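dude i think i finally got it to work??
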Amino acid sequence: FFVRLFFPPSLHYQMDTDLVDLFARAGVNVVTLAIETFCQRFNKKILYEKISFADIQDLCLAFRRSGVRVDPYFMYGFPGQTKEEFDTDVHAAHKLQESGAVDCVSFHFLTLLQGTSYYDEALRTGMSEETYRDAIRRGYSWFRPIDEFNLSEVPTKYLADRVEIFGQAWV
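look at this
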């Protein structure tokens, strides 16, 4: 679920506790929250001037208190993403785990999908259609970073080493 659903503008971006309770009463036993990144430059789904890290942590804790498992996911490898931006997300994921707000965290390498602006950017920066098709045939996915599609400013090995501590992303 997109985090913003639980912080509607109609409630002045305060958590909709009734919606959290509705999910729990409906028998939902796990929610995957699409945090994706705490970097506003890449995340257009969460307005961080309105919805803070603390708000998101409170949302996770509210679900946990209701008996609902919470598994947020993050994305990384955005075009131009800096080491500092990436490390901010890793730190936030650790903080969510250490606070007991989440059950596990998944990190997913940015997937270049044909028809998206990120795919088009990859073509502009040197990736070819042939390279992309070859990678698809070899099993390219968003679960582990690969050099050919790392459009960030962060070395692929650094990315892989940092997310490895969170375990295999869900499949």
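The longest strand covers residues 73-76.
im so relieved honestly
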